[in-house]
Amino acid sequence: MASNEKNDEEIEEVPLIVNHELKQIYVTGAIGGHTAHDFRLLFFNEITKEKNDNSIGLVRSIDYEVIMSHRAVRELYSWLEKHIKKYDEQMKELKNEEGE
Hints:
Elements: E1 29-34, E2 39-50, E3 56-68, H1 70-99
Antiparallel strand pairs: 1-2, 2-3
C-alpha cells in the first residue's frame, strides 16, 4: 500500500448534515459514461406506454443525472461492492435457513 493510502480503520469520520429538504427517488436502472474529467450517471425508471398501434411498450424515463469525480466514483464503487457482498451473504444465509 502506498504511504498516502489509508485503510478503513485509519479514515477519519466526517460528520454528515442531512438537508431537511432531502429528496428520495426510486430508480429501476442506470446508464452512463465518462469523460476525461468526470463520470455521468443517468438514472431511469422503466414504464409501460401505449403505442400508436394500441400495443403496450416499455420506455425508460430519465429524470436525473449525477455527475461525479473519479474519486467519488471509486468511493461509491468500494461502498457498493462491500454492501452487495454483505447483502448477498445475508440472502444466502436466509435462503439456507428457509430451506432447513
